[in-house]
């Protein structure tokens, strides 16, 4: 039998990863249950994309957190109804100044 190339699953949801795995001839598995039932995004996979494995071989995926604290889709720190028209400085990182960055002192 010829080898099967492992598809790139990082960035896909569980159902998308399972579908691409089936299409590519590999079985997608996870430590947290059936990956087809997980809506979070794949953040890692083993073996990595591009490696050759036996047809029907297993590719283990790791999912990121789902929900408001998901690092892939962070929520603003300031709720819109709390300060309409206002933006929390942490929601605009380019507007932050470092503590050591004082006016009049060399950078």
TrEMBL record:
Residues covered by region (Disordered): 53-107
InterPro entries (UniProt xref): PASTA_dom
Biased composition (Basic and acidic residues): 85-107
Pfam families per record: PASTA
Domain of life: Bacteria
Domain (PASTA) ranges: 1-65
Protein name as it appears in the record: PASTA domain-containing protein
